[in-house]
Design brief:
Elements: H1 2-13, H2 18-27, H3 31-37, H4 40-52, H5 55-61, E1 70-72, E2 77-79, H6 82-88, E3 99-101, H7 104-110, H8 114-118, H9 124-128, E4 135-140, E5 145-151, E6 153-155, E7 168-170, E8 174-176, H10 177-183, E9 197-199, H11 207-211, E10 214-217, E11 225-228, E12 243-245, H12 246-253, H13 256-273, H14 282-293, H15 295-301, H16 312-323, H17 328-349
């Protein structure tokens, strides 16, 4: 079984150096496997133990590298019990990773959230410019598209250490569930364990987290497909007899307005991925996306406050234009900022 695991690792990550391979595996949520690779004694011990056990026990002790995804339609049911997260979850789905890809809408859901004040988040600058930053703009290797990623906090290392170079990491929004309920001035349910973990953002957490264990795909324009994928092996919320309909679940966690926004965002990615390389100046596109995502940092450069922050539809318009190579839209936006700065200075002197 161990040899099979190592073979699977080689097939997926064999083109990388050892340190790069470890970083990639932790980013993919395979930190437990990395720990095994770095501990030969543990591997040998586990291998001996597995040889003595029945196959059912082997599968329970050593999961495969990939959690199987089950295709679903909107009318299908899947097994999931949100209460089990509070009763049994140890927060393992939010640990042993380096980064979590989010989107522009997630950022602007966090900013006005109740938890933002607790976390000293007043603007996008607090997300992107902190030490360490909570968010980073990184390139998604598939379509070479830049997205914001939550940067996990390294455990047992200096906070300035990038999570991929730490032995372990944890989502900065993960808290003991008792702390979460206390912050929202709510009584902890009797069936919840105080040791359980939860997200301090709650209903304002990123859409990928709210949707889990359901994944959405819009690779085909005008068509949405779904997959059921437990976030971790042995997820207590998924190992249940409670069933819920896909469409009902999505409606309960994603508002209609956000569904429309997500549809536009997916279309941007489809359009960008379908272009031949070289049609868009990627360096210029990256700089624009970096400024748009940290919009308050851009406003600060022109002496403007967050009250001048554009609506998210305008920001999305800038993203769409940049990914199409229509940089004049961004240039016009910058000129408007300059005009607003000049006007503000004129009023202050009058």
């Amino acid at each position: 079984m161990i040899n099979q695991i190592l073979e699977a690792i080689q097939n997926r990550y064999g083109h990388l150096g050892f340190s790069e391979m470890k970083s990639a595996m932790r980013k993919d949520g395979l930190g437990d496997i990395v720990d095994l690779l770095e501990n030969p004694e543990l591997i040998n011990s586990l291998d001996e133990q597995m040889n003595e056990e029945e196959k059912l026990e082997e599968d329970a002790l050593t999961p495969s590298l990939d959690i199987p995804s089950i295709p679903l339609s909107a009318n299908d049911n899947f097994k999931f019990d949100s209460k089990a997260c509070l009763a049994k979850c140890a927060g393992n789905c939010c640990k042993r990773k380096n980064y979590l890809m989010v989107n522009l809408f997630d950022i602007h859901r966090i900013l006005p959230s109740k938890a933002a004040k607790l976390l000293n988040i007043c603007s996008t600058r607090d997300l992107f410019e902190g030490k360490p930053p909570l968010l980073e703009l990184l390139c998604w290797e598939g379509p070479k598209m830049y997205f914001p990623y939550i940067r996990f906090l390294p455990i047992g290392a200096d906070l300035e250490t990038k999570p991929e170079y730490a032995e372990d990491s944890i989502c900065p929004f993960l808290r003991p569930i008792s702390e979460v309920y206390a912050f929202y001035k709510e009584d902890l349910p009797e069936w919840a364990r105080e040791e359980a973990m939860g997200c301090i953002l709650r209903e304002d957490k990123p859409s990928v987290c709210r949707l889990s264990p359901i994944g959405e795909s819009r690779r085909t324009p005008g068509k949405v497909t779904f997959e059921y994928t437990p976030p971790i092996f042995d997820c207590p919320a998924c190992e249940t007899d409670v069933e819920i309909k896909v469409s009902d679940y999505i409606s309960s966690v994603i508002p209609l307005s956000e569904k429309k926004q997500k549809k536009r965002a997916h279309q941007i990615l489809i359009d960008y991925s379908g272009r031949e390389g070289g049609q868009v100046d990627q360096a210029r596109c990256y700089e624009i996306l970096k400024q748009v995502h940290n919009i308050d940092g851009l406003l600060f450069q022109y002496g403007l406050g967050i009250e001048n922050r554009p609506q998210i539809d305008k920001l999305l318009e800038l993203v769409i234009a940049a990914t199409k190579g229509h940089f004049s839209v961004y240039d016009e936006f910058i000129q408007n900022l300059k005009n607003a700065t000049t006007s503000r200075l004129y009023r202050s002197r009058s």
